[in-house]
Structure formats: structure tokens, C-alpha cells
Amino acid sequence: MSSRVTGNTGEWAMLGQNAPMDLPTQLSPIPGADGLFLWHPRHAGAWGYANCLWIVSEGTAALIDTPYDGPTTRAMLAAAEATFGSPRVAIIATTHSNGDHSWGSYLLPGADVIATHASQAHPGMEPTPQDMQALLSRTSPDEPLGWYMRRHFGSFDFASARMTHPTITFSERYDFAVGNIEVELHEVGPAHHAGDLIARIGDVVCAGDVFFSEHHPCHWTGPLQKVVQACERILDLNPRIIIPGHGRCTGPQELSAHIEYLRTAQREIRDRFEAELSAAEAMDDITQRNLFPGLGSPERFISLIAVEYRHLRGDATEPDLVKITEHTAQWAFNQHVYLNRNTGNGITPLSH
Ligand SMILES: [Zn+2]
């Protein structure tokens, strides 16, 4: 944990050559927290651009999460190089096994990769990079799924992404140090995914995808009560700064408001389940009532209905992430077609 700078500056700079446009060229220091720097890609409304936290002390670094593909990870490494040089990355903690938080880890060989046991217990749940590439290249751009995949995932190069298996797994709690900075990992899943963890570094908490800011979240495993409990665990740690999986950094007040959002979502979805509405009917009804004004990416609400309906039906099978994405794409496509037909004419959502 006390290794010095390894001097691979040129390698990192070269790795950044194919960086996608519009990504940050510097990391942002976390105010009032020595040694913490954030890669914040500012694409909260797009899929796949997750926040990654760098913890840097005494010439060594740890990362909480890595980007989705090779070019984006190389862009982050170049931004880190421009910000503080190139300390040896000794540890990567992966908040959960979605590729947008982990598929760039292979570009940091030699780092220990830490994840929860539970995140590794569902190997078939996550689409592979090859699956994602096929969803982009073997679907029709005129069909909902192909249209949505190209629109939201088309900037990624999944041929350059790799699944990386953890070298260390744990349950409940795992602590480590980076130089003189203490890091606590707390298991809070299942919630967003099967084995979520959050990271606490002093009064800063990295929430992973149990918390999205600015836009509707998507959740795969749930039920939403588990996501609420995970968010409450974060508040119990009394954080000053909370870094969501996606979106800008916030504090406890915003997370409390998000918990209220989740509780409202739970209640509204349950009401419609009990009224025997299908998931698609529930989505349309909730959309028409405009229950959540001001939040972007409304189509992600489909995933919340999916996790709650599975729970309310007592369905304990693993969620089908591609199927949920297909339903999400179908709804977004319907909206897109409708909006194109009715531009500027008092738009209301489509009904089935
Ligand atoms: Zn994510």
C-alpha cells in the first residue's frame, strides 16, 4: 500500500488517444476531502456513464468503479494523469457487477479487484460485452430495441470491454487503506443489483447505483424496499457528500428526497398491481398523472415497475436485464414516434 509513482505517464497519455468526445480531461477534487478525486462524465441522462472515485495517497491509488469500455477508461486514465500524475492503482472496488461500473478494470492489471460475494453469485444475469455488441450490431435501427441501443449505448466500443473477476470478495464489511486514507466497504445489496456495496471514506460516501441523482434510476433486482434500506444505510453513516452512481454529487438532503421518491414509486406501483393493471398499463397511468415532474429518463421507470411486479407476484427468478431493456426501449420508442408526430402540440403520452 505504500508503493511510489511507477512512472507510466506516457502509457496513460497514449491510452487517452481514442477518448470519446465530451469527456472530462481532468478529475475534480472532492471539496474538503484530501486525496479524493472524481471522474464525473456528466452524462447522467445517458446510460453507461458512471461516476468513478479516485482515492490517492502516498503514491498509491484505489478506484471505486471503472468505466464501461476501453476508450472511456483510457480517457479517465488520461484525465487522472493530467490531474495528479500516475500513482500505482493497487485496488479497484466494484460497487456492483453492471458493466458500466467494471468493464474498464482490465486496463489496470495488477490491481486487486474487490466485490461482494453476492455480486458474483449470479454469473448469468449480466449481459456480456459480446451480448452488448450484438444488441448494437444485430438489431435493426428501425425497431425499438435497436433504435434505443444505438441512441443510448452507441458511443461505447464493447469490443474493447472485458469482464474482470474479483480477486477479493467479502460479505457485510471490508476495510482497507490507501496510504493514510481509510476506506470502508459496506455491503448493502441486494438492492439495485444482486450484491451492491457502498464505500465510505471519511464523510464522503460513494453510493454506486443504489442512488441516481437528476434522472430516474433503473433497478434490476430490488424490490424497491431494499433500495430504500440501502439509501437509509448511507444516511446512517452521516455523510457530508454523497456520490451517486450516476449524476452530480449531492448531500443527505437530496438523498432523503430520493428516498421519498422511491417510497412514492413503491406505493403507486403497488396500487396499480392491486388494481390488476399490466406493467405497461401501470407505466402509462403513472406517466399520464405526471407524478415525478422534472426528472429525466422517464422510460427507466419501467425497470422499477418490473422489479416491484416481480416482488408482488412472488417471482423469485433472476431478472432478465435484456427483457427489461426491451420493454424500456419499446416505451421510449412509442414516445419518440408520438412526439415526432405531435411536435409543439400539447404533447401527452401514448396509451396502449
Ligand atoms: Zn450504472
Kindly, what is the distance between the CA atoms of the first and last residues, rounded to a whole number of angstroms?
58 Å
CATH level 1 class label = Alpha Beta
Q: How many discrete structural domains?
A: 1
Number of helices: 9
* Largest sheet data: 7 strands, mixed
Q: What is the overall shape?
A: globular
Largest sheet, order of strands side by side? Answer: 1-2-3-4-5-6-7
Unreliable stretches, pLDDT < 50, 5 or more residues? 1-19, 344-352
The total strand number stands at 12
Class by helix and strand content?
alpha/beta
The CATH superfamily is Ribonuclease Z/Hydroxyacylglutathione hydrolase-like
Instruction: Fill in the CATH topology.
Output: Metallo-beta-lactamase, Chain A
Average pLDDT score:
88
Q: Gyration radius, to the nearest Å?
A: 20 Å
Strand content: 15-25%
Q: Any ligands, ions or cofactors bound here, and which? A: zinc ion
In the CATH hierarchy, the architecture is 4-Layer Sandwich
Helical amount: 25-40%
Q: What is the N-to-C order of secondary-structure elements (H for helix, E for strand)? A: HEEEEHEEHHEEEEEHEHHHH
